[in-house]
Amino acid sequence: MRHPPIEDVELEQVFHALSDPMRLGIVRKLAGSAELSCAALEDGRAKSSVSHHFRVLRDSGLIRTRPEGTTHMNSLRRAELDARFPGLLGAVLAVSPPPCDTPPRDD
């Protein structure tokens, strides 16, 4: 699997990846764990949709995915991202997620 070197990660790519609620949710879950499988992060969504979200997160430099048998284990590249963009992940993760029953905003 492709994982960009941290020096090639662009802020715009990170913002794009974090702009999707599902991807932001995956990042939040990974921030609280060392590693989680794709199955632990899919929240009942279609595999094709979840695969797309993991690819966006990997390509943006936010996560690292490694195979373990037939499973893929994911981890947040926290230390690398904190070195590249100091304070960014801390600020993003400090914002409370909206409750599940809150309708999306029409901004």
Task: Please describe the topology of this protein.
Layout lengths: L10 H8 L2 H11 L4 E2 H4 L5 H13 L3 E6 L2 E6 L1 H7 L3 H7 L13
Antiparallel strand pairs: 1-3, 2-3
Helix pairs in contact: 1-4
Structure description:
47% of the residues lie in helices and 13% in strands. It is built from six helices and three strands; from the N terminus they run ααβααββαα. It has a three-stranded antiparallel beta sheet. A hairpin with a 2-residue loop joins β2 (63-68) and β3 (71-76).
Name the helicity range. Answer: 40-55%
How do the strands line up in the largest sheet? Answer: 1-3-2
Order of helices and strands: HHEHHEEHH
**First-residue to last-residue Cα separation:** 35 Å
Name the poorly predicted regions.
none
Radius of gyration: 14 Å
- Strand share of the residues? 5-15%
E-strand count: 3
Oligomer: single chain
Number of helices: 6
| Major sheet description | 3 strands, antiparallel
Mean pLDDT value: 90
Classify the secondary structure makeup into a structural class: alpha+beta
Which outline best applies? globular
Structure, briefly:
The protein is built from six helices and three strands.
Protein traits:
107 residues, alpha+beta, 3-stranded antiparallel β-sheet, 6 helices, 47% helix, 13% strand, globular
